[in-house]
Amino acid sequence: MKRLVLTLMLLPLAVCAQQPLSTEATASLLTCGPGNDFYTTFGHTAVRISDLARGIDYVYNYGTFDFDTPNFYWKFMRGQLDYKLSRTTFDRFMAEYNYEGRSVVEQPLCFESQQLDNLFILLETNLLPEYRYYRYDFFRDNCATRVRDVLYSAWGSDTLLQRALPERSYRRLVSDNLKGTLEWWRLGIDLLFGLPADHRCSAPERMFLPMEMKAEYAQTATSGIWVCPGMVDAPVQLLEETRTPPSRSFPPVVAFALLLVLVAVMTWKGWWRPWMDRFLFALAGVLGLFLCFMWFGTDHYCTAWNLNILWANPLLILVAIRLRQSPRWALWLLEVCFAVAALWTLVCGLSPAILFIILTFALRVALLR
Fold first, then answer.
1. CA distances from 6 to 13, 20, 331 (A)
2. HEC readout, the chain
């Protein structure tokens, strides 16, 4: 709402610097399919403004970042990387996605003449150096949510007749996009995401995912008027997917289930050695320190309150050093932490591989008591 008020306040200033579009102008939502790089896994959203009478056919893209930014990876890891709005021609945009073999679907957006002018003015104003940069947040402020907000602003309302959908968490929505071929990425994300990722999303919040925005604008309305009737049945497929999707990898749930079985068998046969405990506990403790850094040392919204720290516990570093000389209270405390972490894993639908990891550590800690 604050962003809507701000952009509406800017409109009178921006009108002086822009000529209105012609009556032939159109606006559309472009939804791009996933790519083979991880940061393209969830697709992409952009806005097209076409006005052939004025020689305009632009695509506005809020998903641009600069690899030459000083300390790029450090800023990215700490959640301090700025993204920006960029503009390109429609032909260049399509050529890039055709080269990458990614699909592109276009959905015309039904604006009144003044609303379409508002959208064009807002986008051109946001291109100015003082407005084009923003602090990226995967859930709350990304290339799709920026498009959502600028469309709300152009319409002059942030109230849509939204789809009646069952509430789903950010985590579940992300997991649905990773199941099957990207299970290891799902495991990694579930290790990094904390309790904020379990927030139940409203319809506008679901639009942090481009495919959710595509579905929303196919079926929702503003002020009681459908955004674009008929688009539910006939979106315009501009490009078909031609990339080779990633192949299925060995499932992590199977890998860690086998690890649990191996540890149990080696323990039963007496083949387990103290150095193995030291290695496993130290590894988990270091992971816990990293999760603490992601919680307290970064600006990421989604990595706070990460209950994986209950099992990837820095206390395990002490246990790795002392093993059977570890204080009994510490071992009992760890077992309680394992139980709470396992419950969270089950209730919130984390990757089932995490449950097998927890059981592996719980087995070895129990045998130290």
1. 12, 21, 54
2. CHHHHHHHHHHHHHHCCCCCCCCCCEEEEEEECCCCCHHHCCCEEEEEEEEHHHCEEEEEEEEECCCCCCCHHHHHHCCCCEEEEEEEEHHHHHHHHHHHCCCEEEEEECCCHHHHHHHHHHHHHHCCCCCCEEECECCCECHHHHHHHHHHHHHCCCCEECCCCCCEEHHHHHHHHHCCCCHHHHHHHHHHCCHHHHCEECHHHHCCCHHHHHHHHHHCEECCEECCCCCCCCCEEEECCCCCCCCCCCCHHHHHHHHHHHHHHHHHHCCCCHHHHHHHHHHHHHHHHHHHHHHHCCCCCCCCCCHHHHCCCCHHHHHHHHHHHCCHHHHHHHHHHHHHHHHHHHHCCCCHHHHHHHHHHHHHHHCCC
**Are residues 15 and 121 in contact, defined by beta-carbon separation less than 8 angstroms?**
yes
pLDDT in single tens digits along all 369 residues of the chain = 445 444 444 444 444 445 679 888 999 999 999 988 877 889 999 999 999 999 999 999 999 887 777 887 788 888 888 999 999 999 999 999 999 999 999 998 878 888 899 999 999 999 999 999 999 999 999 999 999 999 888 887 655 555 566 778 999 999 988 887 789 999 999 999 999 999 999 888 999 999 998 888 777 544 444 444 434 445 789 999 999 887 778 899 999 999 999 999 999 999 999 999 999 999 999 999 999 999 999 999 999 999 999 999 999 999 999 998 989 999 999 999 999 999 999 999 999 999 999 999 999 999 987
Instruction: Compute the distance between CA of residue 257 and CA of residue 259 in angstroms, rounded to an integer.
Output: 5
Cα angle value 151/145/293 (rounded, 5°): 160
What is the reported pTM? 0.84
Give CA–CA dist 136/142, Å, rounded. 6
Residues 319, 365 contacting (CB under 8 angstroms): yes
Torsion sign, CA atoms 314, 316, 322, 326: positive
The owner of tokens 């503003």 is 222
β-pairing, 168-169 with 133-135?
A: unpaired
